[in-house]
Amino acid sequence: MILDTQSREQLKQISTGTITTILFKHGLRNVWIRGPQHLFGKGLRAVGPAFTMRFIAYREDLCTPNAWSSPRSTRACVEAMPDGCIAVVESGGRLDAGAAGDILCARMQTRGVQALLTDGAVRDAIGIRSLDFDIWASGIASPPAVSFMHFVGWQEPITCGGVAILPDDIIVADDDGAVVIPAALVGEVVKAGMEQERQEAWILAEVQKGGALAGLYPMSEETRKRYDQQKS
Fold first, then answer.
1. In 3D, which of 164, 177, 108, 118 has the Cα closest to residue 145?
2. Would you list the domain boundaries of the chain?
3. pLDDT tens readout for residues 165-212
């Protein structure tokens, strides 16, 4: 999916908590990617289409140094990443090998990749920290990916953190983790999300002024009328 600039900027204003609530109302529960947390970067909310990468379990005849120069390697994959995407890596939750290190992340950064997201680990923490490149991962490990995983391809459906991710699904990641938005629901999420953020900011202000939660959160009919009057 091509994410237009306006939608991207609006999604940057909507928390992953709000997004999961909206998708829940649409019958989608399994959208929060389990495991990855924001480990590196500025901590700004990342938004972009998913560029998927997939590792499978290692096998000794496949996981050799020759894998680094294979046409189907992580090196070749990075060169196919478009500007503005988020690299989403299925690592099978492995925490004993890094799916990417500082050199691959540096190349992603120069290609305009927004962030890296993996249910496994990354490596070269000192080098990555110097890049100021946003990474959501489940851990940090010294061994290279080829030690315990075999890279098999990119831009195909994957499972990351127990969630199905399709190429070009929209990823939103912040300090609460990362969620996936099916492309067909982006417009609805933007519309409902912007309004929910406005409502919750108003409710929070009322609570901070001493307001009780009853009739406020969720809003009663009377409270909603007061909110609508103040909003307009």
1. 118
2. 5-187, 194-231
3. 999 999 999 999 999 999 999 999 999 999 999 999 999 999 999 999
The whole-model pTM stands at 0.92
36: its two tokens: 């990855």
Q: Which two tokens mark 57?
A: 């379990």
Which phi and psi angles does 88 have, rounded to 5°?
-115, 120
> If pLDDT is split at 50, 70 and 90, which confidence band does 43 have?
confident
Q: Which CATH number fits domain 5-187: 3.40.50.1820, 3.40.1440.10, 3.10.25.10, 3.50.30.40?
A: 3.50.30.40
Q: Is the pLDDT of residue 1 over 80?
A: no
Amino acid at 188: E
